[in-house]
Write a structure and sequence with these properties.
Helix content: 25-40%
Oligomer: single chain
Shape: elongated
Largest sheet: 6 strands, mixed
Number of strands: 12
């Protein structure tokens, strides 16, 4: 590694230590301390330390209170090295660095039953949205032909589908990521204070708080052969057993996307079937028929 990159990693380490310890500083103060230009320090803060939850009050910068003291010396040294050398090693992308940092601070992601939705065509949007979650910065986008301005809390993967969990006008809602259009992060200096009750709901690490403007109520009949797994794993959001007998049990659940339930049922065939709504059952039957009778 070149001397210049050693110096950069050292400077970033020292800045991270200051932030982690709760210190406040101005760009001018850091520029004088490290004998570099104010422009260099501004680049450190706005580009190299983009994924650190840094807050600005007047001319002073500091770490967001929820992240104070959560990094140890080895974390700081490793993060500084990664950030300072990411241009030398292409695999060290912003997303990769963000993933590592999130594990130590307040994770931007919550994954329930990992899946394989392809969002590669929206990778830049996904990465930038991750940064807004870490920085607690409001965003705007178009969703179902309506302009929204929200405070983002989490990116959630549920049954293979990605969602954004966000506060819209005081209500905790989820938005299907693939349906988000015209995403904008207009002001990276503007931040919001997370609501304590929302953070507590998120920290429960389940989807009982997972809400939507258009929830779909689904009724499933499930063979008792797999009952223990379904009950123990709590696979379905807000699942409730509404009937039981010696051969099967019936569950009621609410989902916000057709493919949430379609993918799950396909995985558990022949032990599960959709009872209601009928259009979902018909949709699944068509998928299975198309699979069994492919077009030649």
């Amino acid at each position: 590694m070149s001397k210049s990159h050693d110096t950069l990693a050292q400077r970033l380490s020292l800045i991270l230590i200051k932030l982690n310890n709760g210190e406040r500083f101005t760009v001018v103060e850091l520029a004088n301390e490290f004998n570099v230009s104010a422009r260099t320090i501004q680049r450190d803060i706005k580009e190299r330390l983009l994924y650190i939850p840094i807050e600005k009050d007047g001319d002073y910068y500091s770490m967001a209170s929820y992240a104070l003291g959560k990094l140890n010396f080895e974390d700081i040294k490793n993060f500084a090295t990664l950030i300072g050398t990411k241009n030398l090693y292409p695999p060290l992308s912003n997303e990769f660095i963000s993933d590592i940092l999130n594990a130590k601070l307040n994770s931007a992601y919550l994954i329930k039953n990992q899946g394989f939705e392809d969002i590669s065509h929206k990778q830049k949007c996904f990465e930038t949205m991750s940064a807004t979650i870490i920085k607690r910065s409001p965003i705007s986008f178009e969703y179902k032909d309506k302009q929204r301005t929200v405070n983002p809390y989490k990116l959630i993967n549920n049954q293979g589908i990605w969602y954004l969990l966000a506060d819209e006008n005081g209500s905790l809602k989820n938005f299907t990521f693939s349906k988000i259009k015209k995403f904008k992060w207009e002001d990276d200096t503007k931040t919001f204070t997370p609501k304590k009750e929302f953070l507590e709901q998120v920290e429960q690490n389940n989807l009982n708080w997972f809400t939507s403007d258009e929830l779909i109520e689904v009724t499933l009949q499930i063979n008792n052969v797999v009952k223990e797994y379904f009950i123990r794993k709590d696979i379905l959001p807000n699942q409730k057993i509404i009937e039981e007998n010696d051969t099967h049990f019936i569950i009621s659940t609410k989902v916000s996307y057709d493919d949430e339930i379609i993918k799950l049922v396909k995985w558990w065939i022949p032990y599960i079937k959709i009872m209601e709504p009928s259009y979902l059952s018909d949709k699944l039957n068509k998928i299975l028929l198309d699979f069994l009778n492919p077009v030649k």
